Amino acid sequence: MDTSTTHPARVLLQQMAAYNMWATQRLHGHDDALPEADYRRDAGLFFKTAHGTQQALAQRQAIRFNLRVHGTHHRAQITAALTAMGHACPELDMVIMLQQSHREDRV
After folding, report:
1. Residue 5 has pLDDT above 80, yes or no
2. Staple 81 to which of 30, 43, 93, 99, CB 3.0 to 4.6 Å?
3. Confidence class of residue 45 from pLDDT cuts 50, 70 and 90?
4. Residue 4 lies in a domain
5. How far apart are CA 6 and CA 84, in angstroms?
C-alpha cells in the first residue's frame, strides 16, 4: 500500500481493521480445538464463557468501527481464561500480524 498520499490515521485504521479480523479468526480457530466443556465453562468473563464471548464478538462485527479496540479487550479475556484453565493460546500481538503480513508480501 502506498502511504505517501494516504492520511496516517487512515493507514492506522486499516491496520487496526486487519488486525481485528486476523486476531479474531486466529483465536476462533484455536477455540475450535478446545474441549467443549472448557469452551462453555463459566470462566467469570463478562459474557461468562469463551463461547459466550466469541458469540458477542461475532454479533458485534457488524458494528466494526467503534468495537475494534473493544474486541481486543474480549480476546484478552478469553486468552486469560483459557490460560487459567491450562490451555495454550495463540500469539495475538499486532506486531506478530504485521510481521506475518510483511513476510507474505515478500513471497
Report:
1. no
2. 43
3. very high
4. no
5. 42
Q: How far apart are the C-alpha atoms of 17 and 13, rounded to whole Å?
A: 6
DSSP state at residue 6: S
Task: Determine, yes or no, domain membership for 3.
Answer: no
Distance of alpha carbon 5 from alpha carbon 60, whole angstroms: 32
Dihedral angle sign, alpha carbons of residues 35, 38, 40, 46: negative
Place of cell 486476531: 23
Q: What pTM value is reported for the model?
A: 0.55
What domain count does the chain have?
Answer: 1
Cα–Cα distance, 104 to 74 (Å, whole number): 28
- Is residue 2 domain-resident? no
Task: State mean pLDDT over 55-81.
Answer: 79
